[in-house]
Each structure stands twice: as C-alpha cells, then as structure tokens.
Write a structure and sequence with these properties.
This protein has strands at about 1-5, 10-15, 25-30, 35-40, 50-55, 65, 75-80, 85-90, 105-110, 110-115, 120-125, 140-145, 150-155, 165-170, 175, 180-190, 200-205, 210-215, 225-235, 240-250, 260, 270-275, 290-300, 305-315, 325-330, 335-340. The protein is about 0% helix and about 40% strand. By secondary structure, the protein is an all-beta fold. Strands 9, 10, 11, 12 and 13 form a 5-stranded antiparallel sheet that branches. Strands 14, 15, 16, 17 and 18 form a 5-stranded antiparallel sheet that branches.
C-alpha cells in the first residue's frame, strides 16, 4: 500500500477467480471507493498488462507501476495513470529514449514517480549500436517527459575534479513535491581510489546538474569511521536526505557497521546519525534491546525520518525473539519514537497482537500505513 499527503492510497492485489484477469492495481481516493487502474490481461494499447510491481503514488494522485506485458517484443514496461487512465510511458524494455538517438534500453530498473507525474527510470542501454555504447556509458537515468529525456548518464561530469559519474546502483528516489530526486552511483576517478569511489547525488528536475550530497570516505557522524557503502535513500520536498549506509574504520565491526543518517534542517551540512546497529533501542526499560539491522527509510517533508529496524538482545537477558524483532520508528527533532513492534497489542482487534511486519509506507506529513 502507498499513501500520499491527501490520504489517497494505491495498492495492488490478487483477485479471486480463474483466468488471466486475477490481479489489478487500485487507487482509493481519500474518502472514496477503490477503483481499478489496470487489470492483468486487459489491453493498454500495443499489448496486455501482465504481472504488476513497483507501485508508487504522488501527491497529485498520479499512480505509477511496472508491468510484465504480453503481445510485445519486449516484456517490461513502466506506466503512469494521471486520472485519465493508465497509459504507457516511453520507458519500456526495448524502447528507445529520445535523449540517446538510435539506442534502446537493455535493462530497466525500479522507477521513481516525481511530484510532477514524470517517471524517473534507471537503466542500461544495449551495447554497441549507432553511437557505440560501451560499458563506460551504458548506464543512465531518464525521465518519461518528452519520451525519455536525460537526467544523468554514466560518463557525465560528477562535479568533482578528475571524476565522472560511474555505474549507478539501480535505484532512484523522488520527493512528494518540488521535483527533488536522489540516486547513488559509483564514481570513475583518475587515478582510481577505491576508498572514495561511490556517492549519493541529489538534484531537481529541470535544474542544475545533480550534486554530491554524501560520498564514500566522508566521516560518518556518530561513529569513529567513514561511509563505506550506501544501502538506501529517501529525499523530501526540500531536498533533505535520509540514507541507510554501512561504515568502516575506527574499530567498527560487523556488529555495529550499519546506520541511518539525515541532513534534515541543513542540506549543506554533513548528515547526522539517527540510529546505529548495536545502539540500545529505547523500546524496553533496562536497555535490553539493541538495533540489529535496518530496512526501508523515508524522509518526511516535516524533517522527520521513518524507518524499519530489526532488534537483537543487548544483554545476556533475552528480550528479543522472532516474534518481536521487527519494529517501525519515527525520528523527529532529535527524538526517536517507537511506532509499532511485532508482538505488541494491535489496536481495535479485540486483544490480538501484531504478527509479522513486512514493510510500510510513509507520506510527507508523518502518516504511516
């Protein structure tokens, strides 16, 4: 399920019954009824919808999704519904981005839905081709605007001396408003330095070239080490960034090398630590629990950060088991609050407890589903 600031919800579901139309993507406007946007087995134009994945929802009520299509020579496409009915974007496996004349996509990864309704799709081009695409410039991020305009391409200047954009990490994120986006990628340096060869970039659609927000080798606040690898990002409508990363150096071990950071409140300052693997988690009195690992992270427009974390025992006294180790947290103004935990009472269920927490979604105003 996906939630926007107006309370609209988008989701996909399997449907009871036989046949090819047993899955669909739905939009439920706030206070309204759920409406199917796309149904498996029904036509969208040159082909039929297949299996759905990678759904997103923006504040205007636009819904995007990926579908494995049938009836085409290529079987993966990204689609957007702006309220007029789902329509194919120009971003499809085997299609040609207008920004690279004559070339076609070889791979397309999970897209990000921008606040203006554009789809930002990371992917790679078929090697060779009219322009002689190589492994040094086949990676790119395009926008569905104008049939595939360029956001960034492998080999572009990075803004760092003697360094260009390298291979991206197959993900891009976008904000709820104001068209901010962020992505991680490797850097190609002269000479190559493995300790600084990765960064997270942020930018604004239609603005200047994306700029480095944080780089591998930068000091990781709240630890004695530095950033080593970036695992996940989220950007809000002010361009503030939340990120999940591994750190190394300074005596850091595998038991405390992961954390969540944000530059909330000051995008020109280094990100500050929110939570770190091994730190005591403030959910049981006596400090019996610690953070073990992290998953999804969201940067709210109010400067808050919401994330999913797994717990482990912090002392010899057992307090964590597979039935209560998954949690959802909200950090706001330096304060960390527990939102939900497996094994805790589930409100309005006549005494039932929360079972498995698989994932969650958060909007720009702190709403969580």
């Amino acid at each position: 399920a996906f939630l926007n600031d107006s309370g609209d919800v988008a989701f996909d579901a399997t449907l009871l019954g036989n046949g090819t139309n047993n899955a669909a993507v739905f939009l439920r406007p706030a206070g309204g009824a759920s409406v199917p946007i796309a149904v498996k087995g029904t036509p969208f134009g040159p082909g039929d919808y297949g299996v759905f994945s990678n759904i997103a929802l923006n504040n205007d009520g636009d819904v995007s999704f990926q579908s494995l299509t049938t009836g085409l020579g290529y079987n993966a496409g990204h689609f957007v519904d702006d309220g007029s009915g789902a329509s194919a974007s120009a971003i499809r496996l085997g299609s040609a981005p207008t920004s690279v004349a004559g070339e076609t996509f070889n791979v397309i990864y999970q897209p990000a839905l921008a606040s203006n309704g554009e789809l930002l799709t990371p992917g790679t081009l078929v090697l060779g081709g009219p322009s002689g695409v190589t492994v040094a410039n086949d990676g790119l991020i395009t926008s569905s605007a104008l049939g595939g305009s360029m956001i960034v391409r492998e080999g572009d200047p990075s803004g760092i001396a003697n360094t260009v954009i390298g291979h991206h990490l197959a993900r891009t994120v976008a904000s709820n408003a104001n068209d901010h986006f962020a992505f991680p990628c490797y850097l190609y340096e002269t000479p190559q330095d493995q300790t600084t060869n990765m960064a997270v970039f942020t930018g604004v659609l239609g603005g200047a070239a994306p700029a480095v927000a944080v780089r591998k080798g930068d000091a990781a606040a709240g630890t004695p080490g530095s950033f080593n690898y970036f695992l996940g990002e989220s950007v809000n409508s002010s361009g503030e960034l939340a990120l999940r990363a591994w750190v190394s150096g300074g005596g850091i071990a595998a038991t405390d090398n992961e954390g969540i950071w944000t530059n909330s409140g000051n995008t020109s300052a280094p990100p500050v630590l929110i939570a770190r693997e091994g730190d005591v988690a403030p959910c049981i009195a006596g400090g019996l629990t610690a953070f073990s690992s992290f998953r999804t992270v969201y940067m709210g427009d109010d400067g808050s950060v919401c994330f999913l974390a797994y717990l482990k025992n912090a002392t010899a006294t057992p307090a964590v088991n597979p039935g209560n180790d998954a949690t959802i947290w909200l950090w706001r103004n330096g304060v960390l609050d527990l939102i939900a935990r497996e094994g805790e009472l589930a409100n309005n269920t006549d005494g039932s407890v929360i079972g498995r927490i698989g994932d969650f979604e958060s909007n720009g105003t702190g709403g969580i589903v």
